[in-house]
Amino acid sequence: MAAINRSGVTSRSGPVSRYGTAAGTGTLAVLLLVAVCGSPLYVGWAEDHTDPESAGGWFLRLLAWPAWRFGSGDSGQGVLATDLRAILLVVLAAALLYLLPASQVARVQGSVSQFFSGWGAYVLAAGLAALLSTLLGPAPSLLAALQAAGTGAGYGFLSGWIIGTASLGGRA
């Protein structure tokens, strides 16, 4: 069905959605999750006010995994070394959310594929961010990088449903 847009031009693509793409809403969720749950304020709160022996406390502490400390006055390796994991997580998640258009290639179009594409992209991004930040950081070792990748993938698996759910808010 043809539609006339504001400039008077006829378009066959149909009505334009007011929502962003699934990758765009997923990327926004990644930025918010890392900015809020990785912040020094949240990390400190989670360490001081949650019980690591309870499921809820453990999960709230897990959300603090991509901790960052921009401008904290660390005299060590600087911002890049201490915050590389959080930076890589955001960059890699955004790239993978755009590169994994599951809803376009899936047999079943729609919400289910968007959800799992967003979730899977976050798992991969967290594992890769942990691996690369360990290899590129101070005192790199292959064993530490592989262990960090496992921890990162575990974080992505247990928190990636948030990104998958956010991906549902956009069009394919």
Structure description:
The protein has 172 residues and is mainly alpha-helical. 65% of the residues lie in helices and 2% in strands. It has seven helices and two strands. It has helices at residues 22-37, 40-49, 55-62, 78-99, 102-105, 111-136, 142-167; strands at 3-4, 10-11. α6 (111-136) runs antiparallel to α7. The radius of gyration is 19 Å and the shape is globular. The model is unreliable at 9-18 (pLDDT under 50).
The gist of it:
Helices cover 65% and strands 2% of the residues. The chain is mainly α and 172 residues long. Keywords: Membrane, Transmembrane, Transmembrane helix.
Q: SSE layout and pairings?
A:
Elements: E1 3-4, E2 10-11, H1 22-37, H2 40-49, H3 55-62, H4 78-99, H5 102-105, H6 111-136, H7 142-167
Antiparallel strand pairs: 1-2
Helix pairs in contact: 1-4, 1-7, 4-6, 6-7
State the helix count.
7
Structural class, by secondary structure, is mainly alpha
Question: Alpha-carbon distance between the termini?
Answer: 20 Å
Low-pLDDT residue spans: 9-18
Element-level helix/strand string: EEHHHHHHH
Radius of gyration: 19 Å
Instruction: Provide the spatial order of strands within the biggest beta sheet.
Output: 1-2
| Proportion of helical residues | 55-70%
What percentage of amino acids are in beta strands? under 5%
Shape: globular
The structural domain count equals 1
- Mean pLDDT, as a whole number? 83
Q: How many runs of DSSP E, i.e. beta strands?
A: 2
Largest sheet, described in full? 2 strands, antiparallel
